[in-house]
C-alpha cells in the first residue's frame, strides 16, 4: 500500500466541505438540545390542562376545576433532574387531574383555580425550571376557564418567561 500526499486543492476542498457540514450541524444540534429541554414543561402543561378541561366536563360550574395545588416539588430543581419522593404528587388536585412525574424531571408544577364574581371558573397551570442552576427561573404558564353555560376551554397562547434562562 502506498501513501500519497494530498494536494493543496484537495485539502482546501475537504476543509470547505467539512466546514459546511459543521456550519449546518452545530446550530441544528443546539436547536434540538434546547427543544428537548423545553419539551418537559410544554408536554407537562399540555397533560395538566387537558386533564383540567376533562375534569370540568362532569362537574357543576362552581367546582369546575379542583382546588389549588402547591408548587410540586416545593423546591424547583436547580440544574439537575430530580426524582421526587412517592408522596410528592399525592395532593388531592394532582390525584384528581391524574398528574405526576414518575421519573427524573427538571421542572416544578403548580395549579391554581378560582371562581370570580361573574361565576366564571378560571385556572392557571404553571411550570418553573432552573435548567442551568443559577437561581433564575424560567416560567411557562397556560390558562383556562369555564364560563357559565359554556364548556371549559384552554385559553389561546402560552406565557413564557426566560425560556432557556
Question: What is the C-alpha radius of gyration, as a whole number of Å?
Answer: 23 Å
The number of helical elements comes to 2
Sheet with the most strands, sense and barrel status:
6 strands, antiparallel
Strand portion, in percent? 15-25%
Low-confidence stretches: 29-35
Count of extended strands: 6
Overall structural class, as computed from helix and strand content, comes to alpha+beta
Mean pLDDT: 86
Secondary-structure element string? HEHEEEEE
Helix content: 25-40%
Summary, kept brief:
The chain has 165 residues and is an alpha+beta fold. It has helices spanning 8-57, 92-96, and strands at 69-72, 107-115, 121-129, 138-146, 153-154, 159-161.
What does this structure look like?
- The chain has 165 residues and is α+β, with helices and mostly antiparallel strands.
- Helices cover 33% and strands 22% of the residues.
- The protein contains two helices and six strands, in the order αβαβββββ.
- It has helices at 8-57, 92-96, and strands at residues 69-72, 107-115, 121-129, 138-146, 153-154, 159-161.
- Strands 1, 2, 3, 4, 5 and 6 form a six-stranded antiparallel beta sheet that branches.
- A hairpin with a 5-residue loop joins strand 2 and strand 3 (121-129).
- The longest helix has 50 residues, at 8-57.
Strands, helices and their partners?
Layout: H1 8-57, E1 69-72, H2 92-96, E2 107-115, E3 121-129, E4 138-146, E5 153-154, E6 159-161
Antiparallel strand pairs: 1-2, 2-3, 3-4, 4-5, 4-6
Key features?
6 strands; elongated; 165 residues; alpha+beta; 6-stranded antiparallel beta sheet
Amino acid at each position: 500500500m502506498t501513501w500519497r500526499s494530498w494536494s493543496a486543492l484537495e485539502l482546501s476542498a475537504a476543509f470547505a466541505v467539512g466546514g459546511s457540514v459543521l456550519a449546518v450541524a452545530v446550530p441544528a444540534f443546539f436547536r434540538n438540545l434546547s427543544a428537548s429541554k423545553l419539551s418537559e414543561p410544554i408536554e407537562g402543561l399540555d397533560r395538566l390542562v387537558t386533564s383540567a378541561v376533562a375534569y370540568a366536563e362532569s362537574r357543576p360550574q362552581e367546582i369546575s376545576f379542583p382546588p389549588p395545588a402547591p408548587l410540586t416539588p416545593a423546591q424547583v430543581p436547580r440544574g439537575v433532574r430530580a426524582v421526587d419522593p412517592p408522596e410528592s404528587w399525592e395532593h388531592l388536585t394532582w390525584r384528581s387531574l391524574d398528574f405526576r412525574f414518575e421519573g427524573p424531571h427538571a421542572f416544578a408544577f403548580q395549579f391554581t383555580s378560582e371562581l370570580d364574581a361573574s361565576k366564571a371558573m378560571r385556572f392557571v397551570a404553571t411550570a418553573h425550571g432552573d435548567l442551568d442552576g443559577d437561581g433564575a427561573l424560567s416560567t411557562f404558564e397556560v390558562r383556562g376557564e369555564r364560563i357559565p353555560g359554556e364548556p371549559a376551554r384552554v385559553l389561546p397562547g402560552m406565557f413564557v418567561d426566560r425560556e432557556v434562562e
